[in-house]
């Protein structure tokens, strides 16, 4: 029996309509257009990107279904992506894909395929991010009836922004003539005067690091792998200093040095002295890895090739010789001029060699092919005494106290050719002894007999830099991290060759020669042993004892010969089996060896 509700209590009300109740929404006209919303997971609610689905199996083993192919083709996220040009993909490509057919196990094969997917994705993203590189290398454009060589530095500085105008300055110094070097990231400047003056400073902010006088002549200066250490070639030896001017080390094995150069990826300080010796010093270990006599006499022209690390040395006979620290003879020689050379440089990409001689010609050579004919020729009124090439391919040369720049390295021209005039022309207050382009800046540094000039050359520097390679704005922590990574990735000096791709290949003829030499061991006879016993006193020995000693020696030599043949046999069988496995053949039969001659012969049964 049901219990009646108590008196005075109101009847139960109808429950409120739910917002997503479809039955009530259909009956009510106000909420008739509402639809239930499917809730997503919390980590997917605000995600607007694309999900990357990895394919764990190859297409040959499990083909895609037609419906899935159609869905991927009509995916709106794929349709929104812009097409990447093939030339951009080729620019950022990591190379050809690794064939997975040679991988034995399934696990490593899938791992390699997964790695190729990641590399393809990284290549595509790198090509897409090129849109962010908005900085472009601009050049001066002259009006009708004018040429850019007429523009002076004061006019250029007055028409650029304040930050660029501050990079044009001049230093008047008393201890010249001077040599100069920019650091690898282009932020710091090092000056060395012939009469002992050494100065290092941040040329952008004009903050002085150190300045001192060594009280003897200075031939050349050079930054090391970090902008806190540098080398100075003084009168007798080479000294190392830190950023504050404190002497760190004195290398007495490098004597009477005229020119210094540094290989940043090998940590090698290259030096050429007045006696004709070329030396390589490993600054990470403090060891001399190479010291050869070139036979060229006093070395005044020394530059390294950035692409392979080969050292180019110019001589008074017009010949450029290329050297490696592990080869005592030059790797190659190139006859550039019929007269003595006055200047030489290599472009930052390692593709072209630029030389100048007393014949008043500047020639551009293809350093990769080493042809006997130059790619371009500049005819001058006077011999060029300094040369340099910028990151964008501009050529700068000096003739006495005049400096000229040309926009294209391969265009040719010169002051002797009226049809092709220089891009910029600048007159200095004294003879130019040093000339270098600043990396990642439109600046050209000139060191003269009376000081230093910083000249604006629009369009000479690379506007977009890689912060993981060279960062002009790096902090002290980033510098320390970069130094550690550079030491871990150091290239040994044995890999310095003309063609750096030779290291990745297999020397097939030499390998075949080794296999043939080991095969010949099977057809060798045991070496004949001749033993002459010592003459002993009477009663100290006899014929029986002498013959026993001879037999012991023969057995020992025979065992050594058998062990050597067995070892050679094992190695050849292993090489043959590996080659047959790759070709898909059956297991080869081991070749006959000299061991068969030592096996006991089977006895014949004679009938009586």
Describe this structure in words.
There is one protein chain. This protein has 608 residues and is of the alpha+beta class. The chain has three domains: 84-132, no CATH class; 148-495, Methylamine Dehydrogenase, Chain H (7 Propeller); 508-535 and 542-562, no CATH class. 21% of the residues lie in helices and 25% in strands. It has ten helices and 28 strands. It has helices at 22-27, 66-73, 76-80, 86-91, 106-128, 153-158, 162-165, 476-488, 508-520, 543-583; strands at residues 169-172, 178-182, 188-193, 197-202, 207-213, 218-223, 229-234, 238-242, 247-251, 257-263, 268-273, 277-282, 287-293, 301-304, 311-314, 319-323, 332-335, 341-346, 352-357, 361-366, 376-379, 386-389, 395-399, 402-406, 424-427, 432-437, 443-448, 451-456. The strands form seven sheets. A four-stranded antiparallel β-sheet has the order 1-28-27-26. Strands 2-3-4-5 form a four-stranded antiparallel β-sheet, with no helix packed on it. Strands 6-7-8-9 form a four-stranded antiparallel β-sheet, with no helix packed on it. A hairpin with a 3-residue loop joins β19 and β20. The N and C termini lie far apart (127 Å). Residues 56-74, 582-601 and 603-608 have low confidence and may be disordered. Pfam families: BING4CT (PF08149), WD40 (PF00400). WD repeats lie at residues 334-368. Residues 1-33, 55-86, 532-551, 567-608 are annotated as: Disordered. It is found in: Nucleus, Nucleolus. Residues 1-16 have a biased composition (Basic residues).
